[in-house]
Specification:
This protein is α/β, with parallel strands linked by helices and 881 residues long. The protein has five domains: 170 residues, no CATH class; 60 residues; 146 residues, no CATH class; 254 residues, P-loop containing nucleotide triphosphate hydrolases (Rossmann fold), CATH 3.40.50.300; 84 residues, Winged helix-like DNA-binding domain superfamily/Winged helix DNA-binding domain (Arc Repressor Mutant, subunit A), CATH 1.10.10. The chain has 33 helices and 16 strands. The strands form three sheets. It has a nine-stranded mixed beta sheet with strand order 7-6-15-14-13-8-12-11-9. A five-stranded mixed beta sheet has the order 1-2-3-5-4. Strands 10-16 form a two-stranded parallel sheet. α2 packs across α5, α7 packs across α9 and α23 packs parallel to α26. It is elongated and about 125 Å long. The two termini are 57 Å apart. The N terminus is likely disordered. Bound molecules: adenosine-5'-triphosphate. Keywords: ATP-binding, Cell cycle, Cell division, Cell membrane, Chromosome partition, DNA-binding, Membrane, Nucleotide-binding, Transmembrane, Transmembrane helix.
Length: 881
């Protein structure tokens, strides 16, 4: 509360006045003056007190007779190094008051001086002052006791101090030889309170002893707090001490473990396995980088030793051969250079998409904090806290040998490009080749004056002349003034999923729903966040890699998410594609209540599921509204912080990803019935964490209708059969030029990126699903809200108002008050199940309080206010009394 109090409230007025009054104390000049004064005072006292130790006896009579002799005379007589004042101060502080404890004044003064001069606090003043004060009295007491008990005229009478001497005399008279015991007790009690000692732990002493022993090999700070420690320092000290204790214990434990492991037994701590994998994958990702570097280009069968030289030769030979080509073209005699790019470093088209994504990436970090990071927060993973993320070793390793594009191939393609363009009167300044896994990108800088639109218009002719399948012309390459020509490699490289999932980029991603699709033309890992897309439309003719693509999506998400955070709704009209995922039903799948199978293969059930998702969406929106949150991320965060009460219907919301493997099938059989809920979900579901991935073989306009297309900004196309299909899915040609086997174009907004989809084989998917499926799961799949269709036993006509639900009237009032005829509203308000709420809604409809069922929308409320409702209820009661 105080934190939020505005600064200039009347409450603060006295404080401000007080501050103004002492404001002059903040004058640095004054502070410095005072600081130096105190510094010299401390030094003066130190010398005076030290001198007192030697001159006390001689000076005592002089000081005591000062009133009679006068200051000057006394000063002449006194032996203290600091004159009469040195003698006087020492006499007062040491003899009269505190004895040797007066020396403690010196560090206190010095501390204040240093603070004022250098603004540095050497130790916590209050605490140290308290300690010194006690020690001063205690020493004085002890010395006083010695002075009392030793023969008269002993030296201790001079250094014990009046206070200690008197105290000692008093206790000695009372308890005699018991005084030392009393003194010891005083010290112990002070120590207990001062250092807040709550237990005397002999084990700790053993550990401390071990630590002292260990100090010979590991120099560590002393385990006991030093007298000068401030509170913070002391805490630090304790921390250090504890860390050291645990380190020593850990070292012992480690030795034992090493011994056990020497015997061939492997020890694993909970959570350690994952770390191990990370380490392992670190190594692997390094190799991957090395591999991709190797895959880059130039050296074909070079000997390691001659690598560098040969590369140089190669560059020359490429340049030469271009010159020769150039020579052939009589009209163009500008020399050309060809640079073969190390692809891992080359800037890429995909970076545009990735950059945009990473811009917003920071905003939306992981929705769910990691296990163990929540002291008091709710942990959604707790129920399956032992769940282990699948290791990447379940997947096949990348092929040992990387496929390389030969120098001859590069040269031949280049010559052809230059020649072909030459035929059309297009001069080239330079060419750069970037070799990707499937295609090589030749980046051309046209000669000044060549219009890019001209090259674009000649696209087909150039492709024909190059007579190679899969030529795609990018004119210009976005963000650059160059023209790109993608030519498929003769031998392509298989992009395995494993090294991609093991890459730093994937492992460290902050994307909420990361999908690592594969590699771009420039060999960069292409990764997107499904949560941002927020839905994905996939097209591709049969056999071009769609199913593999879907498996890559599923696998990427399964490798990143805990079952508590993500649920899939799988629709597989082809009935065979997604069956393997049955095994993870109780971990990752969602289904309608009372359904046997989680994976939906029946069209009629798809409709129910889509409407059920719409209900889930509406419910989630209601909850978000109630919680005052804008999106699922905010909502879940609030929920995890226990700021939302589950009693009010709040719950942790996992992401839901709906995957439809074949939309064409559904559209043919159910048409509008599926189109409507899909469009609705696509329009609205992004904020509440429901994301759609819809794939189709036939990207024709009657499958991908305008309304669906408009709501799927992110589209992905494998090879399609015609330019028209390509236009339907991507709004541009190009997908018909792809070379199949996972070669794809990803479009989001204005960006179009060519990506080689990673490959995951069926047995890898199986291994992954087995690994997850064999672990403990939830009791059942995640249950979606029950959807009661319009037809069947729940017809309103059958509702009998004489058997109204006990909650009927209350429900009617809620509905009228909110002017919203929604089942979920009743569920939450009345804390009843979906079925009962559904029955009540039907009764309300029968009674004419709400209108008929309107799909996933809330029903219209026909009664305008509570007055009208009370009248209606009275009539009903009379009628069915
Ligand atoms: N990313 C890839 N890398 C290498 N090969 C691939 C890739 N994707 C697919 N293939 C090859 O293409 C074949 C067909 O792929 P997939 O089954 O995914 O096609 P599809 O588009 O789903 O076909 P359908 O629609 O008939 O099911 C695979 O068996 C595989 O040999």
């Amino acid at each position: 509360m105080t934190k939020n109090t505005p600064k200039n409230t009347p409450k603060n007025e006295p404080l401000r006045k007080a501050k103004r009054r002492i404001g002059w104390l903040k004058d640095r000049r004054l502070q410095l003056t005072l600081g130096f004064a105190l510094f010299f005072a401390a030094f003066y006292l130190l010398l005076a007190f030290t001198s007192y130790l030697f001159t006390a006896k001689a000076d005592q009579s002089v000081v005591e007779a000062i009133d009679n002799t006068g200051v000057i005379e006394a000063g002449d007589e006194v032996e203290n190094w600091l004159g009469i004042y040195g003698a006087l101060l020492s006499y007062r502080f040491i003899f009269r008051w505190m004895g040797l404890g007066a020396f403690f004044l010196v560090p206190l003064l010095l501390h204040t001086a240093v603070d004022l001069i250098f603004r540095v606090r050497l130790f916590a003043f209050k605490r140290t002052f308290l300690l010194f004060l006690f020690l001063a009295f205690w020493f004085s007491y002890l010395l006083g006791y010695l002075a009392v008990t030793l023969p008269e005229g002993n030296y201790f009478t001079l250094i014990a101090g009046g206070v200690g001497y008197e105290l000692a005399r008093w206790t000695h008279a009372l308890i005699g030889w018991g005084t030392p015991l009393w003194l010891a007790l005083c010290f112990i009690v002070f120590a207990i309170y001062f250092w807040n000692i709550t237990s005397v732990d002999w084990k700790r002493w053993r550990i401390v002893k071990r630590m002292v022993d260990a100090q010979t090999t590991h120099p560590v700070p002393p385990p006991t707090p030093s007298l000068n420690d401030s509170e913070e320092e002391e805490e630090e000290e304790v921390d250090k001490e504890e860390a050291e204790v645990s380190r020593l214990l850990y070292e012992d434990e480690k030795k034992i473990e090493e011994e056990i492991e020497k015997m061939g037994i492997k020890l694993l701590r909970i959570g350690e396995e994952e770390e191990e994998e990370h380490e392992e994958s670190n190594e692997i990702s390094n190799t991957t980088d090395a591999q991709s570097l190797r895959a880059v280009v130039d050296e074909e069968d070079d000997d390691d030793a001659n690598n560098k030289e040969e590369r140089a030769d190669e560059a020359t030979s490429i340049a030469l051969s271009v010159d020769e080509t150039q020579k052939k073209q009589a009209s163009k005699d500008t020399p050309l250079t060809v640079e073969v790019v190390n692809t891992t470093k080359a800037p890429s088209v995909s970076s545009v998409v990735n950059d945009v994504a990473s811009d917003i990436e920071d905003e939306e970090a992981e929705a769910v904090p990691a296990v163990g990071s929540l002291d008091f927060a709710y942990d959604p993973r707790l129920e399956l806290s032992r769940y282990q993320m699948p290791p990447t070793s379940l997947l096949d390793a990348a092929p040992a040998e990387s496929v390389q594009v030969t120098r001859e191939e590069l040269e031949a393609n280049k010559d052809k490009i230059v020649e072909t363009l030459g035929h059309y009167g297009i001069g080239i300044e330079s060419i750069k080749a970037t070799i990707g896994p499937t295609v090589t990108l030749y980046e051309l800088v046209p000669k000044a004056g060549v219009r890019i639109s001209k090259i674009k218009s000649l696209e087909d002719d150039i492709a024909l002349s190059l007579s190679a399948l899969g030529i795609r012309i990018i004119a210009p390459i976005p963000g650059k003034g160059t023209i790109g020509i993608e030519v498929p490699n003769k031998k392509r490289e298989l992009v395995a999923l494993r090294p991609i999932l093991e890459s730093e980029q994937f492992r460290n991603t902050k994307y909420a729903l990361p999908i690592a699709f594969g590699k771009t033309v420039t060999n960069e890992i292409f990764m997107v966040d499904l949560a941002k897309m927020p839905h994905l439309l996939i097209a591709g003719a049969t056999g071009q890699g769609k199913s593999v693509g879907l498996n890559v999506i599923l696998a990427s998400l399964l490798y990143k998410k805990h079952p508590a955070e993500l649920k899939f709704v799988l629709v597989d009209p082809k009935k065979v594609e997604l069956t393997l995922y049955n095994k993870i039903e109780r971990h990752f799948l969602a289904k309608l209540p009372n359904e046997e199978e989680a994976i939906i293969t029946d069209t009629s059930k798809v409709i129910n599921t889509l409407y059920s998702l719409c209900i889930e969406m509406d419910t989630r929106y209601d909850l978000l509204k109630k919680a005052g949150c804008r999106n699922i991320k905010e909502y879940n965060k609030k929920f995890l912080e226990r700021r939302l009460n589950p009693e009010n219907g709040h719950r942790f919301m996992p992401y839901i990803v709906l995957i439809i493997d074949e939309l064409a099938d559904l559209m043919m059989t159910a048409g509008k019935e599926v189109e409507q809920p899909i469009a609705r979900l696509a329009q609205l579901a992004r904020a509440i964490g429901i994301h759609l991935v819809v794939a189709t073989q036939r990207p024709s306009v009657n499958v991908i209708t305008g309304i669906i297309k408009a709501n799927f900004p992110a589209r992905l196309s494998f090879r399609v059969t015609s330019k028209v299909d390509s236009r339907t899915i991507l709004d541009t040609g190009g997908a018909e030029q792809l070379v199949g086997m996972g070669d794809m174009l990803f479009s989001m907004g204005a960006d179009l990126v060519r990506v080689q989809c990673a490959f995951i084989d069926t047995h890898e998917v199986e291994a992954l699903c087995n690994f997850i499926g064999e672990q403990r799961g939830y009791a059942s799949a995640y249950l979606l809200p029950e959807y009661v269709g319009e037809s069947g036993e729940n017809e309103v006509g059958e509702v009998d108002l004489s058997e109204r639900d006990a909650f009927f009237e209350e429900a009617a009032r809620i509905v009228v008050m909110h002017q919203q005829g929604s089942t979920s509203l009743l569920q939450r308000r009345l804390k009843i199940g979906y079925n009962r709420a559904g029955r009540i809604i039907d009764q309300l409809e029968q009674a004419g309080i709400v209108g008929p069922f309107e799909g996933s929308k809330a029903r219209e409320v026909l009664i305008p206010d509570e007055y009208a409702l009370e009248q209606l209820l009275n009539e009903l009661n009379k009628k069915h009394a």
